[in-house]
Amino acid sequence: MIIEQLMPAKSPTMTEGTIVSWRVKKGDTVKAGDVIAEIQTDKAVIEWESADAGVVAEILVPAGANAQVNQVAMIMTSKAGEDFAAGLAAAKAKNEKLLAGSGAPAPAAVAAPAPAAVAAAPAPAPVAAPAPAPTKASVRITPVAAKIAAAAGLDLRLVKGTGPSGRITKSDVEAAAKAGTAKIGAAGPAAKAEKPKLKVLRANAAAPQATVPLTPMRQIIGKRLLESKTQIPHFYVSEVIDAGALVALREQANALEGVSITVNDLVVRATALALRANPKVSATWHGDRIVLHDHADISIAVAIPDGLITPIVTKAETKSVRQIGDEIRSLAKKAKDGKLQPQEFQGGSFTISNLGMFGIQQFTAIINPPQCAILAVAGIKDVPVVKSGQIVPGKTMQVTLSADHRAIDGADAAAFLKTLRELLEAPATLLI
User: Fold this and answer.
1) Edge-to-edge strand order for the sheet containing 66-68?
2) Could you tell me how many helices (H) and strands (E) the chain has, helices first?
3) CA separation for the pair 430, 144 (Å, rounded)
4) Domain boundaries, the chain
5) 2-53 pLDDT, tens per residue?
6) What is the distance, to the nearest Å, from the Cα of residue 378 to the centroid of all Cα atoms in its chain?
7) Is 234 a catalytic residue?
């Protein structure tokens, strides 16, 4: 019997994925539940588990290539030695029909070069040359490969990527680690001593043109944010928080042995309590109805190499500041390692985007549908403030709520920010 392994849809918005690496090869025996591949979805790198048992007969989509959802990526036979020629032909025909309907190109074993990389002049004859010096260009690498490279102590400038657009894949770093040619320091003393130099931009300087192919994640980010900004009537409400007590509480807490909390942990806890006090802001829009959520399931915006993902702290109002902090750090690490499971980033009733670590004074964020609001948190600033009629040194932090006016009125948004400000300016209440 022929068993087709179809590219699965690992998120509601996923239409295609990239095979980051295959965990099996032709002739391997697979059991139900075995991880057969790692796939880059529009959200994260996720392990693909086989629902069936069998023997790998043929891999149709090579590592590094894209595949449409429901495209046959691999076929298996129910037993070794079984004739699979007819099944292989049927799978290829099915893929051709699917790709013809979507307009996507058929997967190739080797990614074609980008148009900008095609030279007009004939290629020079090969000559012996020393190992290339590391370049200063940004490195494109999958999250899984980055994790392996860090553990192996590899200099990514010395690793040649074989994935789409030269992206470094898991197999690339494994091969480099085995060869031992990309260890940190392998570039020699001259490269170690090299320091980055500032580039002076001049009006008459011709900047090189680069074409960056869109990853599946960046494509869906662009599509969803465009839809959000053009279809959702955003309005914005800002508040300035007196952050002096907040900073003092954090410093006092972190002076205790074994305690480590951040301002963001306190903000998430305060937001959860403010959402329970103002449930109209903890809502999602579904066209013909608005769902008000019983719990504050807070999505936390986390930057990853290919874009942005929002893992969720579920029922945040029921958790302590330390529990929230531990969960955020665990989820952020899994996000950057590409190990988030779909249930850890799908859903949520509200989002927090915090750029305070960059020293940003103020910004507005775009709502993540179907959610109806998102909170933008800026950095804490040392500023003069007026207390008891006197100008004294102080600390402030600005927060801005972006709200969907179809579901949330101005008074609701203002009430939420008032509650949030009161909680953050009396932060001892967050520890109760």
Assistant:
1) 45-49, 35-40, 16-22, 66-68
2) 9, 18
3) 36
4) 2-102, 135-184, 216-431
5) 999 999 987 766 788 888 889 999 999 999 999 999 888 766 778 899 999 9
6) 21
7) no
Residue 162 in 3-state DSSP? coil
pLDDT per residue over 228-276, tens digit each? Answer: 999 999 999 999 999 999 999 999 999 988 889 999 999 999 999 999 9
What residue type is 239 in one-letter code?
Answer: E
Task: Please name every residue paired with 307 in a beta bridge, in sequence order, or none if there are none.
Answer: 304
CATH class of 2-102: mainly beta
State percent of the chain over pLDDT 90: 52
Region 216-431: CATH code: 3.30.559.10
* pLDDT tens profile 309-330: 899 999 999 999 999 999 999 9
Residues 6+ apart with CB under 8 A from 261: 250, 253, 254, 321, 322, 325
What pLDDT was estimated at residue 301?
93
Which of 234, 286, 293, 405 is catalytic? The answer is 405
Residue 125 has pLDDT above 50, yes or no: no
Angle between helices 410-425 and 244-254 (to 10 degrees): 50
Using DSSP's 3-state secondary structure scheme, residue 59 falls into: strand
Q: What is the pLDDT of residues 238-247, one digit of tens each?
A: 999 999 999 9
Give the DSSP letter of residue 76. E
Token representation of residue 3: 């068993």
Query: Which residues in 237-266 are b (16+ Cβ under 10 Å) and which e?
Result: bebebbbbebeebbeebeeeeeeebbbbbb
Top-level class of domain 135-184: few secondary structures
The strand ranges marked E within 7-105 are 16-22, 29-30, 35-40, 45-49, 54-59, 66-68, 72-77
Predicted confidence (pLDDT) at residue 367 exceeds the cutoff of 60: yes
pLDDT reported for residue 267:
97
Preceding amide of 370 cis, omega within 30? yes
Q: How many residues does the chain have?
A: 432
